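ok, trying the design again with the full structure, not the truncated one.
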């Protein structure tokens, strides 16, 4: 049986003695530890490696901790983030938590406090991964026959009863609206409810280009200004693209029309 990989942790802090002490502590605890002395170095590491958890100092020169946290959420939303800071305020705490930080610790923190935060964060990640896998297996088991029936009906030109209302298709993308299952070239996608609705709406409107404001209005049910809509939808589109790439290897399903919106190819 293959040996389980040790959790990989990224430590981001511009103080050398803190980086060194954290690396020694966490390495002794059995983790695989990478260190970054700046936000710029951290972003390069985030692009190159998959991390289970990141310890992020908020007060960094150049690219700051909140910017690193935002980039981490976009690149790897499953990575647990714990924020460390010696310059705390309510505003920075709220900003970090809004960006998805798991915990917010003040420097210097006790090793026992840090270890407990890391332990809870990694346990939560493992449980989420387990739940995602069980949900994916359940979706495959409960919907494989429905998808097979739809594909056979389309191949022979005889839509199954209710298939026209239940199933959406564009290219290799098939969406089962009843069971809320999406496949790309036969590969199942694991999407959040919001990601599912965004992709379904784009398929309904294909080949038209849909603006972020329209997606916010029609999918999430409220009006927003152009900047807010662009920021929110951009992150959702990024995650949908990642799921499609991971499942099928394709990178051409979603098209961006700069300054206008998004469309299914």
């Amino acid at each position: 049986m293959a040996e389980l990989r040790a959790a990989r942790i990224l430590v981001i802090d511009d103080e050398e003695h803190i980086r060194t002490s954290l690396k020694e502590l966490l390495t002794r605890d059995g983790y695989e530890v990478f260190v970054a002395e700046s936000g710029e170095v951290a972003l390069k590491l985030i692009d190159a490696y998959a991390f289970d958890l990141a310890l992020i100092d908020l007060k960094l020169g150049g690219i700051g901790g909140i910017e690193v946290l935002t980039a981490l959420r976009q690149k790897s939303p499953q990575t647990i983030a714990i924020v460390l800071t010696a310059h705390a305020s309510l505003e920075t705490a709220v900003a970090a938590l809004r960006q998805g930080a798991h915990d917010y610790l003040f420097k210097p923190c006790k090793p026992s406090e840090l270890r407990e935060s890391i332990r809870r964060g990694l346990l939560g990640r493992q449980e989420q991964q387990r739940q995602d896998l069980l949900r994916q297996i359940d979706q495959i088991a409960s919907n494989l026959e429905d998808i097979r029936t739809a594909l056979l009906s389309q191949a022979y030109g005889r839509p199954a009863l209710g298939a026209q209302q239940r199933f959406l298709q564009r290219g290799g993308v098939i969406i089962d609206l009843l069971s809320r299952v999406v496949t790309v070239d036969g590969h199942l996608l694991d999407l959040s409810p919001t990601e599912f609705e965004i992709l379904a709406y784009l398929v309904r409107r294909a080949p038209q280009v849909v603006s972020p404001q329209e997606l916010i209005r029609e999918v999430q049910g409220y009006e927003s200004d152009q900047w807010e809509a662009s920021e929110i939808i951009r992150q959702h589109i990024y995650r949908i693209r990642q799921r499609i790439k991971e499942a099928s290897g394709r990178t051409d399903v979603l098209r961006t029309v700069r300054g206008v919106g998004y469309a299914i190819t």
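Keeping the full-length input from now on. DSSP finds nine helices and eleven strands in the chain.
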